Amino acid sequence: MLDLVYFSSVSGNTARFVERLGMGGTRIPVSPSDPMPVADKPFVLICPTFADGLGRGAVPKQVIKFLNIAENRDLLRGVIAAGNRNFGTTFALAGDVIAQKTNAPVLYRFELAGTETDIIRIKAGLAEFRGMECSTMA
Fold first, then answer.
1. What pTM was estimated for this model as a whole?
2. N or C: fewer beta carbons within 10 Å in the chain?
3. How far apart are CA 23 and CA 43, in angstroms?
């Protein structure tokens, strides 16, 4: 079974979104001095985007630190990216950057704290994805 791992800045948008999903999850700490979690089973990462106008810095430093742990990178199965459509081409860019670096697919993109439609779609998509994961992984 897949877990959820997420990063949420002090604004809390992503944390509120994960709470609304009602599926639990492990939060990547905001503070660099807090211990970094190490995954022990496959997971989907939910990550907000923090890019400048040129797309630099899209992936939060704490997420990079988390994915630099080999066990975490190896167990990543997909990415759900958050962003703000006001930033145009950099909307949810963190998902694309992570997918390119890890070969994990971008499963979904949502804006800010998401909508009820996003919640419904992600729950359904994760249920389907979990079923595929179980049937294809040895």
1. 0.90
2. C
3. 12
